[in-house]
Amino acid sequence: MSQHASPGQHRAARSESTTPESAPSAPTTSERETAVRPPSTQPTSADIRRWRQYLADERAEAAVYRDLAQNRRGEERDILLALAEAEGRHEAHWLSLLGEHAEKSRHASLRSQLLGFLARHFGSVFVLALAQRAEGRSPYAKDPSATPAMAADEQIHEEVVRGLATRGRNRLAGTFRAAVFGANDGLVSNLSLVMGMAASGVASSVVLLSGIAGLLAGALSMGAGEFVSVRSQRELLAATRPTQITLAAAPKLDIEHNELLLVYLARGMSHEAAEHRVAERMGLLSCDCDPSLSLQPELPETGDQHEAVGTALGASLSSFCFFASGAIVPILPFLFGMTGVAALVVAGVLVGLALLMTGGVVGLLSGTSPLTRGLRQLAIGLGAAAVTYVLGLAFGTVVG
Q1: Which residues 6+ apart lie within 8 Å of 244 measured at CB?
Q2: pLDDT in tens, 238-248
Q3: What is the DSSP letter of 3?
């Protein structure tokens, strides 16, 4: 429970005492943002500690948004600065509650400090993804010392940051997808290969050669596959994008007999909307009521229409490099001269750590729990390796 009334509440109380017959007026926006629930006792030491923590976190989050804004331009920069300003309003709220107790400050939470470090040194979509999770975990909705407006602010901030993070995710979606899947495939497939070969009873040198062959074959296969896949996807998307051929053809069509209506029906427009569009194209209506199909001549495309898909070459190189970087991990113990069970255990541990890391990165970017995604990757990868090891044992027994 908050322990101090705001100036706005004192003004309201004086107004009611002097003019009891007057009806209370609705609070202004500033009063809604600064109003605090009426106090009943002095703040406890627990209240003061909690408020100091909130104050430190609000200051840290405002600094994060300002640091991110330095690496942005235009609309994104304005949005981030507006978020920093909003966190400043929340900071003022806790300063007002703390009063003289605000002099002794606390350190921001580890999460806020991590966000600040990443924002200052990297300023990437990872920071926005972490900030999205931080805004979504705000305790204000359950804390009586925070105003309802502050709790609502945090919910809106989460959606704002989600939108900014989505822009960043779209910019790296294609190449990032190839990188993550390439590294994960390299880790799992080569660990499975190494485990299966070792379980079959062959010499360590054969296991090492098999791992190197698996690395090269897999990396080349992944790179070629990604190039073909992404190139084909971009060509398919380009083929399905509607053209504006109707701009040139419409003036020459027979008004009574033409198939222009079928064009818009095939694009998914309702019959009524399609008829309206035909009337516009044929010059029967002077307005252009659908700005998505402008009557003005087409302008040359200035941006990548399929940015989220990525480029074929970028995806191919990312897939090749990251598959190789993942596939080399299981053979590192053999490269350094280890043999037998010890080499397999070390390989399993190294791959497990790498799987946790790749899963955690996916979790961060997707706005979900990094730990959950990391454990899922770990279970899938080590599960596949364990199955291959059992099959290798069976194969070695049969051949032997």
Answers
A1: 293, 298
A2: 655 545 555 55
A3: -
